[in-house]
Specification:
Layout (H helix, E strand, L loop, with lengths): L10 E5 L5 E4 L1 H7 L9 H11 L10 H11 L5 E7 L5 E8 L5 E7 L1 H21 L10 H18 L3 E8 L2 H8 L1 H18 L5 E4 L4 E7 L3 H12 L3 E5 L4 E5 L1 E7 L6 H17 L5 E3 L3
Parallel strand pairs: 11-12
Antiparallel strand pairs: 1-2, 1-5, 3-4, 4-5, 6-8, 6-11, 7-8, 9-10
Helix pairs in contact: 2-3, 6-7
């Protein structure tokens, strides 16, 4: 049987009761025994490969610790299987079978391509997940992700008794911008607002686009007075959109309703209070901030 696998794609080695290699096929010798005498015991093989910079990768631990751990695992059960990373970058799936006479049969398969494919699939999954959570135009979190984030932040605020403040914002006269300058101008205004928020908000804050021209800002661990200071800085001057090539040159403002979480708040109730304040700000002539009374 071993002769039939001598030149196959598997890595095969047979160790006797003293852990000395009694047989190794070409693939195994090329990977682990290029400059090694034959027969050689398992521990000596590992030390020699480590000194030569070949064979198994031991990671951040020293070679003697690696050998000690490997010897503890070997022969501790009739069969085991695990991934073995090589210094040259290949990854093997290795099985160890303890035979009735005490000899140990090791068979490995190269799974490098499979692991690379898994990495590609994981990356594609991550890209797709991010896309599902992101507004295509502004590159901000979208409504679904924004409200999910708010729900988690609200739950944490209740559990840890920490402050949480949110604001709902609406770009003023957005329909007029689209009608007067075109939908391209409206898109430019949305992107300008998103860029301004990214520049002004802290890393711990989150802003999401939750409607056509409506946004939510979430300030975890932040009481009303500090969130209001940030919002006023953002609100202080009209935002300017200028694009010479597209002949765009206009400014716009926004209105906001801000609310701090109460102990009894649900996701719906805090959004309702912020929305009522936003409505009041717009009713007062726009370009205004209204603070929820709680």
């Amino acid at each position: 049987m071993l002769e039939s696998l001598h030149d196959g794609g598997l890595f095969i080695a047979l160790y006797d009761q003293d852990d000395v290699i009694r047989y190794a096929n070409v693939a195994f010798r090329n990977a682990f025994m290029r400059e090694q005498p034959h027969p050689i015991d398992f521990a000596t093989l590992l030390r020699s490969n480590h000194s030569a910079g070949t064979g198994a990768s031991v990671g951040a631990i020293d070679i003697e610790t690696y050998i000690r751990r490997a010897l503890t695992r070997r022969r501790s059960r009739p069969y085991c299987a695990f991934q073995l990373d090589l210094i040259d970058g290949r990854r093997l799936w290795l099985t160890e079978t303890l035979l009735p006479d005490g000899w140990l049969l090791c068979v490995a398969t190269d799974i490098t391509v499979l692991k690379q494919s898994e990495a590609v699939l994981r990356n594609a999954r991550d890209v797709a997940l991010k896309a599902s959570q992101t507004d295509y135009l502004t590159k901000l979190p979208n409504r679904r992700y924004g409200f999910q984030f708010l729900k988690r932040a609200l739950d944490n605020a209740h559990v840890y008794r920490e402050p949480l403040t949110i604001a709902l914002l609406d770009l003023d006269h957005f329909r007029r911008i689209n009608e007067q300058y075109g939908h391209e101008a409206g898109d430019a205004a949305l992107r300008k607002f998103a860029d301004t928020c990214r520049a002004e908000l802290r890393a711990s804050d989150t802003v999401a686009r939750v409607g056509g021209e409506e946004f939510v800002i979430i300030w975890p661990h932040t009481p009303m007075e500090f969130a209001l200071e940030i919002l006023r800085r953002l609100h202080r001057t009209p935002l300017q959109v200028r694009h010479d090539a597209r002949r765009l040159d206009f400014s716009f403002t926004f209105s906001a309703g801000i609310a701090q979480a109460l102990p009894e708040d649900s996701l719906r109730s805090i959004l309702v209070r912020a929305d009522k304040s936003l409505y009041a700000a717009k009713a007062n002539g726009r370009h205004a901030i209204d603070v929820s009374a709680g």
